Amino acid sequence: MANIIDGKMLAQKVKDELKEKVANFKREFGRDITLAVILVGENPASQVYVKNKIKATEYVGMKSLSFYLPENATEEQVSDTVKQLAEDKSVDGILVQLPLPKHLDENKILNLIPANKDVDGFLAENVGNLMLGQPCTVACTPFGVLKMLQSENIEMSGKNAVVIGRSNIVGKPMAMLLLKENCTVTICHSKTKNLKEVCKNADILVAAIGRPKFVTRDMVKDGATVIDVGINRTENGLVGDVDYENVKEIASYITPVPGGVGPMTIAMLLENTYLCAVRNVK
């Protein structure tokens, strides 16, 4: 039976530690750490995410700025908001809540965020520096997964790690982080042949494809560490990409859904905001 990696508890620990670091920053530099969030439109899921992010930001003692733009906002209006925040020296991090309405060019708008205020870690400069092993802001979800593995002292060096999913937000940066920890990394995707056999060889298996209960017990090696990044809404409630009830019987460590990687993503957003602030005052 697997040990459960409790993301909710670990996220709380990260936030409580941040509280102290944020207070020390204020004392040393005499100013707030500020995160600005831009939400365009009225996507219900996005509204919930933004609300949770603002709540968490205020919990750790950071200042939160919120900008709500209508669904029909023009690209120029959204761009002008980002540019203003980019030039504002009191703002340490800028977050544009995704997805944006379809008439807006997502990449064009995100690229207006300076790399030193890119708390999501999505920009080419940060992604490139991650690839090169240089200081950078790491995408929040993979960063959170790494923290979870480290919190349980899970040995990564020399281990076989398999990442299912090749997105720019999770799959690719996750692979880079695991490679940096000296794992032998395989990235799987929709065109991967013999997927079951590849996964079965993993000491560390990260599922990030957005398909409910896709990873079944027969795909998992006995004693593997299984990280479930997926959050899928079904008629039976939220489920991950892993068949949790069956896989936990043979894994050594596993993350639940909900209460696993999700809470860590917001915690690492705050960590990234703090790290951006520290870099920006040096």
Structure description:
The chain has 282 residues and is of the alpha/beta class. It starts with a strand and ends with a helix. It is globular. Helix 2 crosses helix 10, helix 6 (140-151) runs parallel beside helix 7 and helix 6 crosses helix 10 (261-281). The protein has two domains: 30-114, Rossmann fold, CATH 3.40.50; 140-262, NAD(P)-binding Rossmann-like Domain (Rossmann fold). The chain has ten helices and eleven strands. The strands form three sheets. It has a six-stranded parallel β-sheet with strand order 1-11-8-7-5-6. Strands 3-2-4 form a three-stranded parallel β-sheet, sandwiched between helices. It has a two-stranded antiparallel ribbon with strand order 9-10. The longest helix is centred in the first third of the chain and has 23 residues, at 7-29. The chain has helices at residues 7-29, 44-59, 75-87, 106-110, 124-132, 140-151, 171-180, 195-200, 244-247, 261-281; strands spanning 3-4, 34-40, 63-69, 93-96, 160-164, 184-188, 204-207, 225-228, 232-234, 237-239, 253-254.
